[in-house]
Amino acid sequence: MSFSFNIDNIILKHIHQVKIYDRNGHLHQKILVLVINEASQEFGLFILKKKRFIYLIDVFFPVCLEWSLKQFTDLDNIKFKINETWYTFHSLPTVIENISTEIQKALQIANVNEISFKDFGINRHLWLLNYLSLVKKDKKEKVEEKTTTNFNTSLNQRPEREFESNQQKIKNKQKNKQEPQSQNNSGVFRDGMLFDKLREEWIDIELHKHKENFSELKQITLICGTWNVNSKKPTINIDDWVKINGGEPDMIALGFQEIDMTASTLITNDRTKGKCWEEHITKTLETKEEKYVLIKSHQLGGILLCVYITKTHAPYVSQIEFDDVPVGVLGLLGNKGAVGIRFKLYDTKICLINSHLASAFSNVTRRNTDYKNIVKNLLFSTKKQAQTSTQQTKPVIFESDITFWMGDLNYRIALSNSQVRELILNKEYDKLFTNDQLKEQISKQLAFEHFQEGMMNFDPTYKYDVGTNIYDTSEKKRIPAYCDRVLFYGNGIRAREYRRHEYLISDHKPISAIFNLEVYYIIPDRFKEYKLQLIKELDKMENQTIPNAELDTNNVVFEKVVYNVPVTKSIILSNIGSVWAKFNFVPKVNDKNICKSWLKIDKLNGFILPGTKLEIKFTIHVDNSTAHLLNIGKEELDEIVILHFENGKDHFVSIHGEYLKSCFGMNLETLVQIEEPIRDIKEISKESEAKMIIPKEIWRLVDYLNLYGMDEEYIFVESGNIGEMEYLRECLDTGSAFNFNGSLHSVAETLIMLLESFPIPIIPFSLYKSCIDFSYSYEDSKKIITQLPKNHQNLFVYITSFIQDLLSHLEFNKLNLTQIVSVFANSFLRPIKLGKDPTIERKQKIEFISHFIQMKEKEN
After folding, report:
1. Quick one: pLDDT at residue 656?
2. What pTM, to 2 d.p., does this model score?
3. Is residue 285 helix, strand or coil?
């Protein structure tokens, strides 16, 4: 028997009768059908099963342009019997030796024995997706019954909990999209549950968008305050900092910076001084008519955030989370960074962040980078899941309904000292604010682009002579600036007042901002009624047509890519169909990951409405984890990613970039063999003998610091400039001279970054445990060093000697042993995996390395 039919350019030609044994050994009689769309030149292979008088699609395989079959299901254990011969799925393409001939035959008999789609129970214009309704038809009543049962059950529960769990389901689904087992799309065709998933997600989104329809608003007054206390203890009355005119606030959030800047605090995160300030606030609030309780306090190094609320509202606080992100030297020290506290007040999620960003007038780019790193890494309870995933979704802080960001942001005023001081004298705040660095970065969308700020009608809060109201009279005579800020993001926020306070114990003045907040409280009966309306509306809206989307290009070329400099390119996705389309990126067959680790995709999944467009960004970022294989030519910046549409066709996007070799991420053994600049090497040789005692790149940086940097204050402690460090890396890779008059801190941080980029540290991983175990003993430590490979031993002696030389200049550079060794610690010793107590291991690393510095000092 053979038949074909042609409706709206669609041809179905019966090819073979098939017997299929499934993985359970059961025999099934099915037919194999070739499908051709004349208009689009697309075709595919269907396996149909007969149910009463209609045929249902059991499995669908698109046929690629190379006449090969693409597997959408796990059929490794399934066998096909065609013309008395058994085939596995992987050998099935050999049955159709020339599929183009089959197409020609189908075209020739297209007008013979035509059969209407309606004869198969399928609407002619909704030809592919509508078979799903047939699969679902028998299940429809059960699905509706199940939905109603679940809904009725939820009536007896607190609805906001259900709403909250629904939101969590969305996050879990986004996470699951990255799991390989969830990419088996055959399940969509076999179990017909696609629309159930779509319904659930649509309802969740609509509930979140329109929660004002089933909620009432409660008014909350909030004070957000920030103060860089310059390591001072609480010795003054702060009553006016935490009060408002005409009453007392419902909630108070106070952020501090430089609580304690001693080296021990920054390394061990000692909270002694933070507790002093917390107790001082508590005692101040005890004098108020309103009684306050502490929601949470959290400290990172010198950064502290304390959040209080009145006892009236305290019972409605839930889901309290906290996190911190250090962005100090190499992201290790808490001298700069942020702490965050997030919680739910009634049914509104509130996030509070206190940060201390990079200092210095010219360090605008670094401050912007600090902001981006904090946004990226402040993850709260989602940290573990996010760190195990290779992809990132929407930043966690913007998942809250309301976010406040306070702190010493360190942005300055881009005018001369005399101009700024004259404008302050004349109270011309608008001109000061016009030249404010932070305002400029926000307008250029380089940092804090989502945030707003109240109107500042007060003098700059930095920098004062301690104990006075006089701006800096020291030799540096720093330009006064609005370093201390309070920003906000979200709906239902009204900024009432922005003010500063005249305390004298620090070189900064504290500020505070008063806000009126509208927070939602879900009313159970309204929630249930609104959800029921949505379910009814969705029942009417259900759409069974095929999504139709196109890309403006499927070939993304990045040209030249260098180490540790992210490059982003975009494609435009357009929905040219008549219904919304749900998409997600999926792994290739037998792959676990969606893409290689050097590639990031900003939108892994989502919806796109008809007639709309969506930008998808691809970012290539070569870091320490990926640079080595690219440098030695075992990996290239070539990738193909699959953009899948549920019930639609896949799009294949080709990603290509040219990586410029770098000494960063290269093995120590290889670097000592290369005399010329690495950028000039076409192929890395495998010579066994070293031509240099240490890599020339290390020598160049150390030599420069020996000549110019030994007396620089806080060398290796303060951060370098990102642009300058990129320039230095380029000079090292190309062999260019250092025509450089930038910051010595940039040279120092470049040295640390180069040492830490080695795939194998100075002391190899195999000796790490021994170093930690015998860190207390110099004699045992010496024995371990004798086991180092010769090249590693040479570099160990060279760097420890350099550190000893640095410490001989401590009168000028103000370094100490613990400080400098802690910075170099990861260059010498890195574990393959973090231990149970990283803080203790860090102390042991410092102790181990310090032996050799101290003994060199004694020998000298």
Report:
1. 96
2. 0.53
3. helix
